[in-house]
What we know:
By secondary structure, this protein is of the alpha+beta class.
Amino acid sequence: MAKLTLMDLRKLRDGKKIAMSKRSAEGKRAEVVIGMGTCGIAAGAKAVFDAFLDEMEKAGITDVTIKQTGCMGLCFSEPTVEVICDDMPHVVYGNVDDKTARRIVRDHLEGKALVNDHIFDKPSTDIIKTAGK
Length: 133
């Protein structure tokens, strides 16, 4: 095994810092949560996670947190992705593949439009307006 130089270690550290900053919620306008329970992983959630990271990087999006969670309870529609934006309703997308993940980045995160053909859950507008009361 080759020895790492100090420069190699610094590059590795800087790369990991960038990757981890995408998971930090501090100062971010939106959050993407990908269901990575056993059913989600078996349905392709890892490829979905990678597609989100790739498309967000291509688009230069740095103000959105991306993280994973366990089972969301929607096993029939895995992989599932919850998107939480400050200025939009919280939405759970289902049957998300890598192409759909890229659409969610372009349409929902950049364009502020829902990807209606993959919505599996969202709060009613009357609940949003009354804060659940």
